[in-house]
Design a protein that fits this description.
2 domains, 186 residues, 30% helix, NADH Oxidase
Length: 186
């Protein structure tokens, strides 16, 4: 049975009430743009990539290609190409999520993989920020810089690292963002 308190859902299994770890991770995620200089452990990188490849995908096509960039000079070059991602230069790593252009739902599939990657990073205490790729003028330049084959396009960049600063933005209340059955103006 699920129990609800103001901002948290709890699962009641018998006599014990325990917090739902999954929803706690989701609710604690926020965009991080300032990172400590510490590297992300290889085991963490491998596991979050494993999580990303398990994201939902239309017809199980899995039309993605994931890049992991840790080279400081390459991170600076990517940051220099973006319009709102200059902080990529200071990240411990940046994940590039690319989609196979011929796949009908590559954008949806790669967005699901990006969100899964971000949540997996959060589960390890690694902060990240979704930086747009798809529809940005620099997407092709980043693809070329990373030597990704032409049949792929950059969907997103996810700079990541251990947070140096935690600035949490307030979110809208759930009642302002949800309707049930048919939308009615009040």
């Amino acid at each position: 049975m699920w129990l609800h308190t103001k901002d948290t859902f709890f699962f009641s299994g018998g006599d014990a009430i325990s917090m739902n770890v999954g929803t706690t991770i989701i609710k604690s995620r926020h965009s991080v743009r300032k990172y400590k200089p510490a590297p992300i452990e290889e085991v963490v990188i491998r596991d979050v990539l494993e999580c990303a490849r398990h994201a939902p995908t239309a017809m199980n096509l899995q039309p993605w290609l994931f890049g992991v960039i840790r080279d400081r000079e390459l991170l600076k070059k990517i940051a220099g190409l973006t319009d709102h991602g200059k902080f990529i230069a200071d990240a411990a790593a940046c994940f590039a999520v690319c989609g196979e252009r011929k796949a009908k739902y590559y954008l949806e599939d790669c967005c699901a993989a990006t969100e899964t990657l971000i949540l997996a990073l959060q589960a390890y205490g690694v902060g990240s920020c979704w930086v747009a790729g798809e529809k940005k003028e620099y997407a092709e330049d980043v693809r070329i810089l990373l030597k990704v084959p032409k049949e792929y396009t950059l969907v997103s960049l996810v700079p990541a690292g251990y947070p140096a600063d935690l600035t949490i933005q307030k979110k809208k209340e759930v009642d302002l963002t949800v309707f049930y059955e048919i939308y009615k103006e009040e």
